[in-house]
Amino acid sequence: xxxxxxxxxxxxxxxxxxxxxxxxxxxxxxxxxxxxxxxxxxxxxxxxxxxxxxxxxxxxxxxxxxxxxxxxxxxxxxxxxxxxxxxxxxxxxxxxxxxxxxxxxxxxxxxxxxxxxxxxxxxxxxxxxxxxxxxxxxxxxxxxxxxxxxxxxxxxxxxxxxxxxxxxxxxxxxxxxxxxxxxxxxxxxxxxxxxxxxxxxxxxxxxxxxxxxxxxxxxx
Length: 220
Ligand code: 5GP
Known about the structure:
Layout: H1 3-7, E1 20-24, H2 31-39, E2 44-46, E3 49-51, E4 65-67, H3 70-78, E5 82-88, E6 92-97, H4 99-107, E7 110-114, H5 117-126, E8 131-136, H6 140-150, H7 155-169, E9 177-180, H8 184-199, H9 202-215
Parallel strand pairs: 1-7, 1-8, 2-7, 3-4, 8-9
Antiparallel strand pairs: 3-6, 5-6
Helix pairs in contact: 2-8
């Protein structure tokens, strides 16, 4: 065996399936912007969640979410249609249909899920190979400033979101990577760097390397 060969992790590496990237972060962390940055990378696709929350005036069905009734959501749960689902803010139900995972595996596109901490924990349990990225604000004060500057939430809602942020951040150990979104351009570069590095692992490049090796002819 050559010295180079010993550098490759032992054991048979499974054929690389597309990445499953889970992105979470407290409301006001800027996670949607960073998810958009990741989705600008060729070779990625977004999952469209189902939710029972009412549509906001700015949202079109099927683009951000598939808006469904409680009865429709419950039926999907009974049919085992969800990869994960949760009640977020103790109010509305949100879930990731399994069909997006099937689609990603069919097309070979890396799948991006923008979901809350409860959902991320479920995905990590079902798909341990998935990669979870946590987006955090630089400080509590900055998070509060951002929530206030939106001008959409009541004082009560802001207090609730800050308390929820604390709970969410305390689940940080479940995540593989953390991006602190102080400067959105830098945070975007970090998010892209994470995905790029994941795409360059030997496990993911194995088929390509083997093809290259075969083109040299002969066996080692
Ligand atoms: P919003 O209603 O503001 O769009 O989202 C509220 C929260 O629900 C966000 O933290 C968002 O990431 C989360 N969320 C969106 N879709 C899903 C989903 O399919 N599953 C889970 N568990 N959370 C979701």
